[in-house]
Amino acid sequence: MTDAPTLTEAPRAPTASGSAVPRREAREKVMGAARYAAEHTPPDCAYAWPVPATVARGRVTAVHADEALALPGVLTVLTHTNAPRLGPSDDPTLALLQNDRVPHRGWYVALVVADSPENARAAAQTLRVTYETEEHDVRLTAGHPRLYTPQDADDGVPAVRERGDFDAAFASAEIRVDATYTMPALHNHPMEPHASTAWWDGDRLTVHDSSQGSTTVRDTLAGLFGLPKEAVTVMSEHVGGGFGSKGTPRPQVVLAAMAARRTGRPVKLVLPRHHLAAVVGHRAPTVQRVRIGAGPDGVITALGHEVVTQTSRVKEFVEQAAVPARTMYTSPASRTAHRVVALDVPSPSWMRAPGEASGMYALESAMDELAVATGVDPVELRLRNEPETEPDSGRPFSSRHLVECLREGARRFGWEHRDPRPGVRRDGDLLLGTGVASATYPVLLSPSTATAHAAPDGTYTVRLNATDIGTGARTVLAQIAAEALGTGPESVRVDLGSSALPDAPLAGGSSGTASWGWSVHKACTALTEKLRAHPGGLPAEGVSASADTEEEAGRESPYARHAFGAHFAEVQVDTVTGEVRVRRLLGVYAAGRILNPRTARSQFIGGMTMGIGMALTEGSGMDEVFGDFTERDLASYHVPSCADVPAIEAHWIEEHDPHLNPMGSKGIGEIGIVGTAAALANAVHHAVGVRLRDLPLTPDRLLPHLTP
Questions:
Q1: What secondary structure letter does DSSP report for 207?
Q2: Rounded to an integer, what distance in angstroms lies between the CA atom of residue 416 and that of residue 378?
């Protein structure tokens, strides 16, 4: 363990890094000056509109384009018969218009290009496509006959891990919990739809893309179009959210580049929101069985977490929902496993905190059931099951202050006044309840490069291809640079958002600041050393330094590195309507050194708000006849609004962890969502006295259990 943590109220010396510096781009955004991918319109720009398949499985037999081509302003219709041929890619979802196959409903089978978005859309709506259909299967079940055990889940983690004799330990446990929890498909739905503007200058390709990482987009486009990387420039200057769905290239950037090459004009493509569910990834539905064996004191002797999920026939993606159970609690005997079935459905992908958000809902709900079964307070139960080392690997934690998060959260929330009896607190027609859940998210790092430059006028410029997806990366990177340089953040300019800059990894996995910041810190430290050689002033061209953290980021740590947190929730359940409303939501986090309290609090609260949607409103069913998602827009897919988010608080404990990076920081973008859904579900159980294990907790599910 590292030094004891301190609470956020404790005074600390102000530094460039660690101060609540306002966002650099805030004024640009509120004034409308920040330009997003769809807001770049080169001269003579054309517009594209994609055409999705209307069958669940089969092949295209014909695309009747004559009527569409005869409409005003239509330039071309791309299909599998005339689209540019693409090179190989490790992502089959980008093999667009390359053959006649339809792997799922919504797969793009044509692209209309016209002189205006209105003309492109009108022509796309008239395009007639005929198909030869095949039988399809889109239904996930726990006992599906084609379930298989993959070698790995997402991110290369082993799909199955076992320690001890789980079956014997569970069978002999005095207290046993055996419960199955289900979640539907969830969709990212960023405020800014996926958009790209692309144009060619000879054999050079330039793209403005709504992406979480333009270095990756550049490399992928270079491979698909047979170009050297230096012939492709991808810019993602401002991005209006992604939450994983923009973590890798998506269809719009490939289609825009194809259309621009075919027409010889710049082409802009903005995906319609109702297309997104089928083409940009989603959180896969899961069926999760959790088994916990314990003694009467609540100490766990056996822990099993087995996940059934789905992938597409296009590519394998396995939601690693059982992985958090390998980190969280003491468990002498453990089994964590994933099974998956390939269905005729869109390809799942990353959605904020993939694996952890899904898995911790089930695990933390089961922990609440264990608390009820043993009569141990839910906070105390978690304290009793704190491991000394990471259970799965046996490695020591670089820092782990979950206990402090739970205790501080309980103090702030007033947990000691809670009546443990379910279904007893009432306010007229409202039943009231409180719940708690823990959270965890791994510390992830990727290699990054950066340059730092000192000018004679006393200003500095840091350059790297990071992406600010609305999290405040520009601001925090300037703070990191300023601290390393011994100056104020106002003296540092940060250039980012273009693949023409030094390579940097994508904004994802809560790893952006840690990865980029390390290279910025290293470059600025090197620059500081160089500046010592110029005590009498700098040359006219200034002084520069560069850094590459491939060695540092690639070095395997002997420590288990994770962020932790605790969520506390109070809900009210209307016995007349069945509606669940959040009264209070509080999170306390241990995530290393917080580099900017202002942007950090925004990130924590944003994740918690997404957790409210996950628990209470969000879900997308699959139409088994037509083979598509039934909720495909913001009118039917209900994300939380301001009215759904009342008193919400985020606090943290300052950890001093020397085993992370030079800043001592952990990722904060995703841990806020991880335990929220379970805390709310546990609060609903406490309110009504009935355990509902299927998300979301909508009125139709609650009403049968309520008496006004």
A1: E
A2: 11
pLDDT single digits (tens) 182-224: 999 999 999 999 999 999 999 999 999 999 999 999 999 999 9
CA distance 410 to 649: 13
What CA–CA distance (Å, rounded) separates 589 from 401?
9
The per-residue b/e assignment along 313-341, b for 16 or more CB within 10 angstroms, e otherwise, is bbebbbbbbbbbbbbbbbbbbbbbbbbbb
Q: Measuring CA to CA, which residue among 500, 506, 453 is closest to residue 481?
A: 453
Residue 137: CB atoms within 10 A of its CB come to 17
How far apart (Å, rounded) are the C-alpha atoms in residues 664 and 593? 5
Instruction: Give the tokens for residue 654.
Output: 């300052």
Q: What is the pLDDT of residues 672-702, one digit of tens each?
A: 999 999 999 999 999 999 999 999 999 999 9
Strands (E), 506-638: 543-548, 562-574, 580-590, 622-623, 628-629
Token duo for residue 354: 């993939």
Q: Which residue has the tokens 């980021």?
A: 553
Q: Peptide bond before 696: cis, by omega within 30 degrees of 0?
A: yes
SS (H, E, C) 468-498: CCCCCHHHHHHHHHHHHHCCCHHHEEEECCE
Instruction: Please count the helices (runs of H) and the strands (runs of E) in the chain.
Output: 17, 27
Catalytic positions? 670
Q: How far is CA 184 from CA 120, 283, 284, 362, in A?
A: 34, 8, 7, 13
Token representation of residue 321: 């929902």
Stated pTM of the model: 0.95
Angle at 667 between CA 662 and CA 668, to 5 degrees: 135
Contact 51, 259 (CB under 8 A): no
| 59: three-class secondary structure by DSSP | strand
Say what the pLDDT of residue 15 is.
59
* H or E element at residue 514: helix 512-531
